[in-house]
């Protein structure tokens, strides 16, 4: 799932409220009923249906019912960052890994930062529930919730390491499954190792 931030500025406040209600309803329901979405969002059912139609066109909630997708989760996190004043724009994708996507973002002054979006549950990384300590033994959770826990944990570790003088990017903000950190102007280690191997 690639982040497409082009529609972010065109989504209405009601649609974001409904998207947030789907997120909250997903804690207890695999498919969130329209009546619960209306109750959580505080909107009338006609407004909820209109907002759900708007979100469906942008594929921000699931096709087989009202289920939050990673695209919708990305939009909620970006909206939170924008409201806090952390980010103003989203730029190019600069990296992809087994469990995350990396984007360049900027604040309203144009200062560039990095946004890391955790995406646990990709096909190549399905054993994470048994290999990581995000949940207690026997507990289960959705991949989105696991991604959120991974982002919270990484942000906490980065803050502690940075405070103790370790050479890590400066952690700036965290919301849901995303975290914002300092952009370091450097080459990836794999590029350095490739050139070093070819020079010898």
TrEMBL record:
EC class (word): transferase
Alphabetic keyword roster: ATP-binding, Kinase, Magnesium, Metal-binding, Nucleotide-binding, Serine/threonine-protein kinase, Transferase
Gene Ontology annotations for the cellular component aspect, listed alphabetically: cytosol; nucleus; preribosome, small subunit precursor
Keyword Metal-binding among UniProt keywords: yes
All copies of domain RIO kinase, residue ranges: 59-200
Cross-referenced InterPro entries: Kinase-like_dom_sf (IPR011009), RIO2_wHTH_N (IPR015285), RIO_dom (IPR018934), RIO_kinase (IPR000687), WH-like_DNA-bd_sf (IPR036388), WH_DNA-bd_sf (IPR036390)
Name of this protein: Serine/threonine-protein kinase RIO2
Species: Microbotryum intermedium
